[in-house]
Specification:
single chain, alpha+beta, 5-stranded antiparallel β-sheet, 3-stranded antiparallel β-sheet, elongated
Length: 314
């Protein structure tokens, strides 16, 4: 005689099957969601890393004239607003540069000297003509002071203070904070990455600091800031033309080229003296009588002298 399942047993099996199905679906949804979040975060990290490399390239494309004096029109500006962990406490930096970094190769500014301003803006910001639609890292650029229109110069402000003239351009979304610190000079450098020497303030706006530390805070797909469980993205940039901005002199590379050229010319002059002495003949002292002495005396003339320091576009 075959025994059938009772109603209680059937109900119990259905309940157990439902519980196992619920656990399986919850696990599957959790794994799927984690995979989607990780994929979105990695994609955002890649796009952010590309954008930050543009910022680093922009800083390394810094321009500072070497006409023999310092200028506030080409200095590095830092507006410190706090620790940079959200848009309201994010810093603002500004500098002069050349090249297509940040502005793009199709921009007319890429072929000229221009000023760049970098900041984090929050969605809904109405400080500019068009409201900010996405929270992220933004940049503005304006022409160099020598390229700004001369007409109506007293009536129109062509600097970044005129918020209605230069609309911010999105560099990277998902960045919710930005903090900048500077290493003012190379006089007290004790280690290559000694963070204790970096400062939040930069008052010398007619020059550029020795190094700049950039810290960017990312947002997760749900809009929260990664602070305790994910390290912020950091870049440290050795600023070019640091020495030049201190005294307005020629860049070290040009100085080295001139010194090297002068050394080669002096060495060439020394070789001429040696050849002249040998042509004097018979081991006689340079400058002695006869044709040999004449040639030897000619060999004693000094070689080329390095040209005096001068300025040109870096």
């Amino acid at each position: 005689m075959r025994r059938a399942f009772t109603l209680v047993e059937i109900l119990l099996a259905v309940v157990l099957l439902g519980v196992l199905t619920a656990i399986t679906m919850a696990t599957f949804n959790s794994v799927t969601r984690s995979w989607q979040i990780s994929t979105d975060y990695l994609d955002k990290m890649q796009r952010t890393d590309f954008a930050l490399n543009q910022v680093v390239s922009g800083l390394r494309s810094l321009y500072y004239p070497h006409g023999g004096e310092q200028s506030y029109d080409y200095g590095f500006y830092l507006t410190d607003k706090g620790d940079g962990e959200d848009p309201d406490r994010s810093d603002v930096i500004e500098w002069s540069k050349r090249g297509s970094a940040i502005v793009g190769s199709k921009s007319a500014a890429a072929d000229t000297v221009h000023r760049v301003q970098l900041m984090v803006l929050e969605e809904g910001n109405h400080d500019y003509i068009d409201p900010i639609e996405v929270t992220g890292l933004y940049a503005r650029h304006c022409p160099d002071v020598t390229l700004r229109p001369k007409d109506n110069r007293d009536d129109i402000d062509f600097s970044f203070a005129n918020d209605e003239m230069y609309q911010p351009v999105l560099i990277a979304d998902g960045i919710v904070g930005f903090n900048c610190r500077v290493l003012p000079s190379d006089e007290k450098v004790e280690a290559e990455h000694d963070e204790s020497l970096f400062e939040d303030k930069w008052e010398t706006s007619n020059a550029v600091p020795y190094k700049v530390e950039l810290t960017f805070y990312l947002a997760d797909p749900e809009g929260r800031a990664y602070r305790s469980n994910t390290a912020p993205i950091m870049r440290i940039v050795r600023m070019p033309l640091y020495e030049q901005s201190k005294d307005g002199a020629a860049p070290p590379s040009e100085k080295a080229a001139r010194e090297s050229s002068g050394a080669r010319r002096r060495a060439s002059g020394g070789s001429g003296r040696a050849r002249g002495g040998a042509a004097g003949g018979g081991g006689r002292a340079p400058g002695g009588a006869g044709p040999g002495g004449g040639q030897g005396g000619g060999g004693m003339r000094p070689g080329g002298v390095a040209p005096p320091p001068g300025g040109g576009a870096p």
